Structure formats: structure tokens, C-alpha cells
Amino acid sequence: MSMDPRPLQTHGLSSRVYVPILMEIFQEKYTEGDEVVEFTLDDIRAAAIRLGISVRNPADLAYRMRSRTELPEVIRSEGFYILSAVGRGKYRLGKAESAIITLPSTEPRQVPDLTPLPVRRLLPERLAQFDEQALLTVVDYCKILDDFTGLRNFRLRSHVRKSVPKIGQAELDEVCVAISEDGDEFPTIVPIEAKAVADAVNRVQICAMVSFCEVYFPGHAVRPLAIKVDHDSLVHVLEFNATENAADLTILRSATYDIRTSDVQSALIRETTQRLL
DNA sequence: TGACTAACCAATACCTACAC
DNA sequence: GTGTAGGTATTGGTTAGTCA
């Protein structure tokens, strides 16, 4: 497990735009005992006007406060940890234990880096420096998903962004179709959320992937996965229950992979001055 | 000056209104 | 009903601001 103490969500204590606006909305909408607090994009705009704050991209508030910034202490103290989209331009604060998934500590499995040299040499040496797309590329080449799921995984789409009823837009970093080794099984859909070092695995995003699959792949089994690289370049793979309710999301299985770059790969990477990322 | 954080930008998918 | 244009929403990446 990474020894870097930096939290995966920033504290938001110095926010002068998003946190004050969210607090304004919360204080307006919340009544003691409420289990959810709903608001709209128009509420964000209205709160900004009341506070005399200019906000150039109101929708960004919801995304930032959901993924990259902790909800304010006042809101969390009432039990609200989840900020989710519940329709186009509609959002809901809900109660849960936490907003982000804590990575379980498991013994790393060492696997060779099977990324072809022409590709690998153009990526950073340390996986901790990868962005999510580079991470998915190396994970695919190294057959991490096959090892983790016990199935043969075939990439269907990358970076999918589609509208999902009652959610709004959902974005998936990758969607795979998985079948058993003998190939005669009804395909399982494997939606994947990949996270670089700086980003947290977010409950809402995992549940949005499940909702996406319910709409676009009805009748198929769904195995939602998150792939997260940590500061030590270890790759964590987590499988969740296929729930659309963030408060019910639990980790079913997890594994940690230590992808070992060969000496030849390392030497070529160091020789290569051009980097894609 | 560098690290960290917050806010903005840009790309793109989606929605809606309107003309035909 | 279909096509299209313009506006809206989402989110990864970038930039600007702050502070030690």
C-alpha cells in the first residue's frame, strides 16, 4: 500500500466558490431528519447570484464536489457523503459511510510487463506517472483482467459517454465483453473505471456504470471493476456488487498487481526522450 | 520556488426546438 | 417523422492562485 499520505480528495477548506455555494444550497434545502437533499443546476446558479459569486461552469460544482473535493464538514456531520446525479441537471446529496472507496490491502502479485516495446518505451517508466488511459493500455496488454476475472476479456469500447435515464450522462473508461475459456457462455459485461494516482475510486461512478449496463446491455451479467494505480506503482483491481445504489456498494473481490518492467524495457524507456504522456 | 488546491477550459455527447 | 442547429451537461486536463 502506498505510503503517500496525500488524501485522494482535497479538503475544500480554501474554496471560495464551490463550497460556499453548496453550503448555501444545503442550508436552504435541508431540514433536520431529511434522508436526501435534492437540488438542480438552477439552484446552483441562484445560490451563486445570492452570494454574489461568479461561477463560469455551474455543473462543474457537482462533479468537483463529488469526485475531487470532500463535502464540507457541516454536510458530512449530518451523514451526507454521496453527491449523485439523478437526472439531467439534477443532483442529490445522500447518506452513506463514505464517498470514496478505500483500497483494501492485499499481497501484490508480480506479473511481467507484456506491453510491446514500441508502445512501452513511449510511456513513463513508473506506472504511478500514468494517466488512466495509459493504465488501461498496460493492464490490457498484461492480461490483468483475464487473470482477475478468470474470463477472456475483449475490449468493446473505450471512453464511452452516454446518457442514462434518471442519471444523466455516464462515462465509462472502458467496457469489455467477457466469456469463459470455452467461449460458449452468454457474455458478461465488464464496465471499468480506471483511476490514476491523483483520483479516488468513487462510489457514484461505479453505480453509474451499473446503471449504464442495465440500460445498454439488458439481460447481461455485469461485473463492475475499478482499476487504480497507487503511488508505489501497484495496480489495484476491485470488483463490486452490481448495485445502482451507492450506499449499498461493496467490494466483492480485490487483487493487487506489481507489473514488473523488464531491464530491456527500462533501458529503452530511459533512452527515449519523446513521451506520449 | 515548488507543492498543493481550486477553478476554468475544451471536447464531446445529449437534448430541444424548429423547419421542412 | 427526420434532419439540423444551437444550447446544455459532463468530465479529464490545464492553468492560476496561494502558501510555506
Task: From the structure above, extract its key features.
277 residues; Trna Endonuclease, Chain: A, domain 1; 7-stranded mixed β-sheet; 3-stranded antiparallel β-sheet; 28% strand; disordered N terminus; DNA-binding
Structure description:
With 277 residues, the protein is an alpha+beta fold. It folds into two domains: 18-95; 108-271, Trna Endonuclease, Chain: A, domain 1. 29% of the residues lie in helices and 28% in strands. It has helices at residues 18-29, 41-51, 58-67, 73-76, 117-120, 132-141, 144-149, 203-216, 263-271, and strands spanning 36-40, 80-87, 90-95, 108-112, 152-164, 168-179, 188-195, 225-229, 235-240, 251-260. A seven-stranded mixed β-sheet has the order 4-10-9-8-7-6-5. A three-stranded antiparallel β-sheet has the order 1-3-2. Strand 5 and strand 6 form a beta hairpin. The longest helix has 14 residues, at 203-216. It is globular, with a radius of gyration of 20 Å. The two termini are 24 Å apart. It binds a DNA duplex (20 and 20 nucleotides) through helix 3, strand 5 and strand 6.
